[in-house]
Amino acid sequence: MRLLVVEDDPALARQLAERLEGEGYAVDRAADGEEGQFLGETEPYDTIVLDLGLPRVDGLTVLRSWRAQGIAAPVIILTARGAWTEKVQGIDAGADDYLAKPFSMEELLARIRALIRRSKGHASAEIACGGVVLDTRSGRVTLDGQTVELTGHEFRVLDYLMHRKGQLVSRTELTEHIYAQDFDRDSNTIEVFVGRLRRKLGADLIKTVRGLGYKLEAP
Length: 219
Prior knowledge:
Shape: elongated
Strand order of the largest sheet: 2-1-3-4-5
Largest sheet: 5 strands, parallel
Number of strands: 12
CATH class of the largest domain: Alpha Beta
Number of helices: 8
């Protein structure tokens, strides 16, 4: 899953990016509203973390612009503690959730996981497909109850396909959602990761639709 963090505090932005990357997310960062607005308009994100007090263009203006253009990526806004008017304005502008500063990193992670699950149509923290189960809270993957060890990129590919199970996912879409903007992307490596997942989880789990992409379905 690919996230955008729009935060002008360098220390907080770095802390957020490092923790999110440690949890297996691909993360892009923007230090002001203008850059954040541009990235949100031109790149596909699974969730956006948006501070409201931004230089150049404020967060509410950015959010309203995204929604006016039909950009539906889930957005969690960061507000100053006690600024209830900002929370109300943020929700009315199209935010999906909010968190007051200072906040617990664990709470932010839980809210991000929930936003991603709901946006992909999943109610439970555990997503199952046949004998494969992915626990979005712990990142644990099991096959028939036994833990399966995956590399970081293998997990990102499986995570995205599990959230989109039963749907056709193109190789381009998959590439866009598992790599950050500044990563040297090579779509051919997607085939390598899919091949490894098939060996670890079963050859029939991920189906190739020739010329179109991949579909994850229970065998």
